TrEMBL record:
Record keywords: Membrane, Transmembrane, Transmembrane helix
Transmembrane segments: 6-25, 76-98, 104-129, 173-193
Keyword Transmembrane helix: yes
Superkingdom assignment: Bacteria
Any one Gene Ontology cellular component term annotated for this protein: membrane
Any Pfam family hit: CCB3_YggT
InterPro entries membership: CCB3/YggT
Name the record gives this protein: YggT family protein
Source species: Legionella quinlivanii
Key word Repeat present: no
Length: 198
């Protein structure tokens, strides 16, 4: 690729990654039933709400004789939008990197792989933030709304890490173990792809 195409490829990749991170954060926080009034949830919904809001209102629309159903723990509109964004992402990246549309089988393969890689990357960065803030300010969770969200998202991984290696002399290795495991999985998936797009 030329310099201009390389820069365009990078920018497009970053934009799609940020969009997917927001969508995955919304899906994960819905799964953990974070209050809609929480500042982090409000910020995410303000960004993705204009797209997903109308879809949810259609799904939740009242019908005569039926009570309105509460929001599901699983954000199906969010997941559907993630798949659509993934398809558009790899169509755009394929056009930039190879000057043409990728075969449908390749696009499907990349989408499936990225549906695993993107949430794992999100959890990796959440763990990294948790580790850094635990050193900088151990009480960050109580002082910052984002701290509560980071802990909420990463607590299941921390518990899994404790099953592998318990605390040693008061030092918690669980975040580091889980970060290494996540990175190994994502690198393996990326290296297994036929083209370096994931």
């Amino acid at each position: 690729m030329t310099g201009l195409l390389t820069a365009a490829y990078f920018l497009v990749s970053v934009i799609f990654t940020l969009i997917l991170f927001l969508l995955w954060a919304r899906v994960i926080l819905r799964y953990f039933r974070l209050s809609p009034l929480h500042p982090v949830n409000q910020s995410i919904n303000a960004l993705v709400g204009p797209v997903l809001g109308p879809i949810e209102r259609m799904i939740q629309q009242d019908t005569p004789g039926k009570t309105r159903k509460p929001l599901s723990q699983y954000d199906w509109p969010g997941l559907a939008l993630i798949v659509v964004v993934e398809i558009i992402k790899f169509i755009c990246l394929g056009l930039l990197a190879y000057g043409g549309l990728l075969p449908v089988s390749f696009i499907l393969l990349f989408v499936i792989a990225d549906l695993v890689v993107q949430p794992l990357n999100l959890m990796f960065f959440a763990l990294l933030i948790r580790v850094i803030m635990s050193w900088v300010n151990p009480h960050w969770e109580q002082q910052n709304p984002a701290g509560y969200v980071v802990n909420l998202m990463t607590n299941p991984l921390i518990r899994l890490g404790h099953r592998i290696i318990p605390n040693v002399s008061g030092f918690d290795f669980a975040p580091y173990i889980m970060m290494v495991m996540i990175k190994v999985i994502t690198l393996f998936i990326s290296a297994s792809m036929p083209l370096p797009l994931v």
